Amino acid sequence: MAQDVHCPTCGAPLHIRNRFVTTVTCEFCGSVSLVDGARLDPTGRSVTAVQVPSPLYLDATGRIGNRSFRVLGRLVYEYDGGFWTEWFLEVDGNRRVWMVEDEGAFSLLQIQPRVVPPPFDDITVGQTIQLGDLSVFVNEVDEATIVGAEGQLGAGRLPGEAIRYVDGTAGDNEISIEYGEKEVEVFVGRPIPRESVQIDDETY
Ligand SMILES: [Zn+2]
């Protein structure tokens, strides 16, 4: 399901790419809107593009292994150690996935909607916590701010939002829990080698 709508702030035409998209950033005025069926609700927030060097870019297409992808949008997070980027990808035309890029390393993350994590304040580094079937060793507990956004996103988080997060490992899996202002999201992912990400028209 793709649909054409207009930015509620500046009236620019926007093309919503698929049914997973919940948030759209207008490429003309930077205002952020929530997708509510056929309507766009302005959030009153706006963003400027944050340039973090990357081989990926909005609308880039390519392959991850034998699957094709298109970049629908991204969020840029700032924390004490710098920045990381979460790319929202459409895969094989109908699936969605988040790909985290952190200092040139990529991981593919799947959101786990039914997993309920412990409260943030109960978690400390070095602890092992239970998340569904996974025993997760906690190696990072910190805060970050979403300082940039671009394109279309399927996330419960908005630009400007402060989040708290927990990163850990469970066997070969990377676990990330993001405690946003409204929602808590649990992701389970795997690191992927840079060479398995093939980008059409790579410009970087
Ligand atoms: Zn606009």
Describe this structure in words.
- By secondary structure, the chain is mainly β.
- The chain has a domain at 3-46: Single Sheet (Rubrerythrin, domain 2), CATH 2.20.28.160.
- Helices cover 0% and strands 58% of the residues.
- The chain contains no helices and 16 strands.
- It has strands at residues 3-6, 13-16, 23-25, 31-36, 39-46, 61-64, 67-79, 82-91, 95-102, 105-111, 128-131, 134-153, 162-170, 173-179, 184-192, 197-199.
- The strands form two sheets. It has an eight-stranded antiparallel barrel with strand order 7-8-9-10-15-14-13-12. Strands 1-2 form a two-stranded antiparallel sheet.
- The radius of gyration is 17 Å and the shape is globular.
- It starts with a strand and ends in a 5-residue tail after the last strand.
- The structure holds zinc ion.
- Zinc ion is lined by residues 7, 9-10, 12, 26, 28-29, 31.
- The appropriate CATH architecture of the domain at 3-46 is Single Sheet
> Per DSSP, what share of the residues sits in E-state strands of 2 or more residues?
over 45%
- Basic shape: globular
Main beta sheet strand tally, sense and closure: 8 strands, antiparallel, barrel
Overall residue-averaged pLDDT value = 91
